[in-house]
Write a sequence for this structure.
């Protein structure tokens, strides 16, 4: 019984890992869509959003998904997404 429970927990944990990895691209798409709608931000704010978006993508590609999500969240907050 204990081995079966452990195996099930392990399988569920491994199966959920890709879900976190794919969260970053969804956030990047939201940011891109908001930028395409010409948000009413100052040039400085717009530059900051673009920098955060690029940094989030870099972190995602490097495998730092939590840092990527956190960085992209800052950009989305500035955009009101």
């Amino acid at each position: 019984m204990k081995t079966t429970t452990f195996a099930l927990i392990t399988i569920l944990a491994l199966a959920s890992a890709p879900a976190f990895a794919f969260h970053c691209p969804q956030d990047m798409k939201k940011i891109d869509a908001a930028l395409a709608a010409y948000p009413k931000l100052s040039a400085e704010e717009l530059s900051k959003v673009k920098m955060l978006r690029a940094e989030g993508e870099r972190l995602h590609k490097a495998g730092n998904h939590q840092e990527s999500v956190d960085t992209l969240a800052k950009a989305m907050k500035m955009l009101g997404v």
